């Protein structure tokens, strides 16, 4: 019961209600404290594989956090769509240009780095765009399962693919090596779509019970999320 109450405080209670003033939007709003809180909230749930009770709990937490950043459900009938055994969760911030940029965190397992670090980064990125004005492009923030999420999104996108500038997927972000972007082209019925995959190194503990929160260097993760924000800015304005 105590753990449930703590989780509710950590996830559902805005910091302002605790007397903490946080910056609203912009790169300066990305904080180590937020990253730690969001990683912990997911890791504390335990087994989040599709079909387990904690899977739905995890999606609910992620949707709630993105909702706090004033994003809206990206699909006409809500925020989720089926994706293999799991579901794609997508929330969006409308932009000015009529174009869209999709940023997706890969929800691969229960690991603190292999899964939770990229989801926490996505939430912090959405916070950076919690601004009074609209971003240049519509930003679609997604969390989707591997290996089915991307294919499911291409079949049922939140924004027409012909109006999508790129899809940026986030893998583990706090490994020992620097972030490594890999760019490919995705073919679909109406043409090709730019796809960038961004992650740090694969670590021996990924996919094992040793992928724990204590292994994460949140100072490094913070720096990488700040660079991620700059990369998104570059994609919108290049």
Give the integer mean of the pLDDT values: 88
Helicity range: 25-40%
Number of helices: 6
CA gyration radius, whole angstroms? 17 Å
Strand content: 15-25%
> Number of folding domains?
1
Query: At the third CATH level, what is the topology name?
Result: Aminopeptidase
Tell me what the CATH architecture is: 3-Layer(aba) Sandwich
Amino-to-carboxy terminus distance? 50 Å
Overall form: globular
Order of helices and strands: HHHEEEEHEHEEEH
**Biggest sheet character:** 8 strands, mixed
Annotation, overall tally of beta strands = 8
Oligomer: single chain
Poorly predicted regions are: 1-23
Classification by helices and strands: alpha/beta
**Text of the CATH class:** Alpha Beta
What's the CATH H-level homologous superfamily?
Zn peptidases
């Amino acid at each position: 019961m105590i753990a449930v109450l703590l989780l509710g405080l950590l996830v559902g209670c805005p910091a302002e209600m605790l007397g903490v003033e946080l910056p609203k939007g912009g790169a300066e709003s990305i904080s180590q404290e937020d990253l730690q809180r969001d990683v912990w909230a997911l890791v504390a749930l335990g087994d989040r594989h599709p079909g387990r009770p904690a899977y739905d709990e995890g999606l609910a937490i992620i949707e709630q956090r993105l909702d706090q950043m004033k994003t809206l459900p990206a699909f006409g009938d809500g925020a989720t769509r089926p994706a293999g055994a799991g579901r794609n969760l997508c929330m969006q911030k409308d932009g000015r240009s009529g174009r869209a940029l999709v940023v997706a965190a890969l929800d691969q397992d229960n690991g603190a780095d292999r899964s939770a670090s990229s989801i926490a980064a996505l939430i912090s990125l959405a916070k950076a765009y919690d601004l009074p004005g609209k971003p240049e492009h519509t930003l679609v923030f997604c969390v989707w399962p591997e290996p089915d999420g991307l294919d499911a999104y291409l079949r049922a996108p939140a924004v027409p693919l012909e109006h999508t500038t790129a899809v940026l997927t986030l893998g583990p972000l706090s490994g020992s090596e620097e972030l490594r972007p890999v760019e490919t082209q995705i073919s679909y019925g109406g043409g090709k779509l730019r796809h960038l995959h961004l992650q740090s190194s694969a670590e021996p503990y990924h996919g094992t019970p040793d992928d724990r929160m204590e292994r994460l260097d949140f100072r490094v993760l913070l720096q990488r999320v700040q660079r991620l924000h700059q990369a998104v800015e570059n994609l919108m304005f290049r």
